[in-house]
Amino acid sequence: MNMTKIPLGEWVDSLVDWITVTFAALFSFFTNLIDGLLNIIVDVLSVGPPIVLIIVLALLVGYTSKWPLGIFTVVSLLLVDNLGYWDSTIQTLAIVLVSGFFIILLGIPIGIWCAQNKTVQNIVTPILDFMQTMPAFVYLIPSILFFGIGVVPGIVASFIFAIAPAIRMTNLGIQEVPKDLIEASDAFGSTSSQKLFKVQLPLATPTILAGINQSIMLALSMVVTASLVGAPGLGADVYRAVSQINVGQGFEAGLSIVFIAIILDRITQNIRKPAYEKLVSRKIVLSIVGILIVVAALFNTFTKEDTIKGTGSAIGESTNYKIIGIEPGAGLMAQAKTAMKDYKLDNWTLVEGSSAAMVAELKKAYSKKEPIIITGWSPHWMFASFDLKYLDDPNGTFGGAEEINTLVRKGLKEDAPGAYTILDQFSWDTSDMEKVMVDVSGGMDPKEAADKWIKANTDKVAKWTKGAQAGNGEEIKLVYVAWDTEIASTNVIAKVLEQNGYKVKLSQVEVGPMFAGVANGSVDAMVAAWLPSTHKDYYESYKKDLVNLGPNLKGTKNGIVVPKYVDIDSIEDLK
Ligand code: PBE
């Protein structure tokens, strides 16, 4: 049956476009609000040396959940600090606290409303089901467009993902209040707000708190996902570890998340009936915590002023000292970090995320002619779509022109000689690759774009397949990272292999796994090794276990890129 596809995706696209434009002012208000709140919390949490916060948290955990857990808190947080994850931990705590704040602010009133009004409940319940089951990744996409790359889209996505239990449990808690108590309070002629605040809410508190506890745990579970769009913290450490297959770092950062989870869980679970309530009343403890927060905040506002002034550059001020990066494991990111050291860009941060998020951010800034600084590489379609320039790199940190190499697993030559020959002979020019990239960036399916290029370049393809024996439906597994360059090349070579009798399976992975996969033979080949500089580290660690078939493309370039309207020319101008 040949029915036209319902353009649901297109509709959502145009809806999101429309929202992005129409509510731009509102979104930038929220971005600033959330960012501001987050900064305050980070400042407050890091007001003294780590041990201050460790002691405060330990006392709080001990007070709510008995002294052994207090000691556990001290030991575990000292370990986190010792391993070097303290700053990340603060970031993660702050992200969870901000999401938690908004969850409480909105979740409880909505829950109450649901409990009081059947219609509202009937409308809200399916929405909550939808929010909880839609994969959380999906929220990240519009969030980047609305709130830009960084921590804010991560917080928004966590909020959407995590608010449901708070609403549901508030609703449930209130509905579970025994009927006779309600009748009694009605009989005494209490108004509905008296009934709510004096009877329903107090009785529902345990259930409500259980909901908040669950919501906060869910928000914490989102930190790794949020790091894909540039949220810093322990989640970013885990993501970086995956992307570079760094088992040790992954374990350390993961363990730190576990500690934070235990601490937050115990505090929120037991705060209603603290273990030592008889010794010190809850009111006193909460007041002390409140006073500490206020003192820390005041201390910050008075000491902060003069640290920022004097070091600023105009371009730094207007971009918030941010360089928008890509996947944490990319060679380009390692180069950018080295460049920041070489050029002494101490007060700048390199935002980790993904190539797609970086491009989204570029598009957004470009349409408003706002300054933006990104990590970039060529060939790339963005140079055709936007007026961009590389910043001069007088120190040569980004290396010179490079080649993209084809790497295959050992033994492929014997197992699939035809595929080996084609992979070996595969080579094209930047202009070829750009044609495929432009089509893909314009919305064409990568497979289709590859097919189109192949049809238009039969002579080139004939050279690749010359003398190659045809396959017999053997499976060839190709790996690649979702960089625009690699999406283009991998799809083209995949199609050519298919046309020559192979069954090709493509897997999209992170950088480290791409090299590791070819080296350990679990996949057959990749056409994405940028050498000699970009992927030097990966290549050095895996080269003895793989076969290098040489370059498939020459003349690539990496660097720091800005739109032409940005008034600087060299990386040195960022200082
Ligand atoms: N790149 C594109 C990759 C290689 C391909 C420059 C973003 C990297 O930095 O690892």
Q: What number of domains? A: 3
Strand content: 5-15%
Mean pLDDT: 92
- The helix-and-strand class reads alpha/beta
The CATH level-2 architecture of the largest domain is identified as Orthogonal Bundle
Quaternary structure: single chain
User: In CATH terms, what is the fold-level topology of the largest domain?
Assistant: MetI-like fold
In the CATH scheme, the class of the largest domain would be Mainly Alpha
Count of individual helical segments: 27
Shape: globular
Corresponding CATH superfamily of the largest domain: MetI-like
Provide key terms for this protein.
575 residues, alpha/beta, MetI-like fold, D-Maltodextrin-Binding Protein, domain 2, Dipeptide-binding Protein, domain 3, 3 domains, 5-stranded antiparallel β-sheet, two-stranded parallel ribbon, 9 strands, binds 1,1-dimethyl-prolinium
In brief:
The protein has 27 helices and 9 strands.
Q: How are the SSEs ordered, and which strands pair?
A:
Elements: H1 8-22, H2 24-45, H3 50-65, H4 67-83, H5 86-116, H6 118-133, H7 136-147, H8 151-162, H9 164-175, H10 179-187, H11 192-221, H12 223-227, H13 234-243, H14 247-270, H15 282-308, H16 314-319, E1 322-324, H17 331-342, E2 349-351, H18 355-367, E3 374-378, H19 382-385, E4 388-390, E5 402-409, H20 412-415, H21 417-425, H22 430-441, H23 446-456, H24 458-465, E6 475-480, H25 484-499, E7 503-508, H26 511-519, E8 525-531, H27 536-542, E9 546-563
Parallel strand pairs: 1-2, 6-7
Antiparallel strand pairs: 3-9, 4-9, 5-8, 5-9
Helix pairs in contact: 2-5, 2-15, 3-4, 3-14, 4-14, 5-6, 5-8, 5-9, 5-11, 5-13, 7-8, 8-11, 9-11, 11-14, 13-14, 22-23, 22-25, 23-25
1,1-dimethyl-prolinium binds next to helix 17.
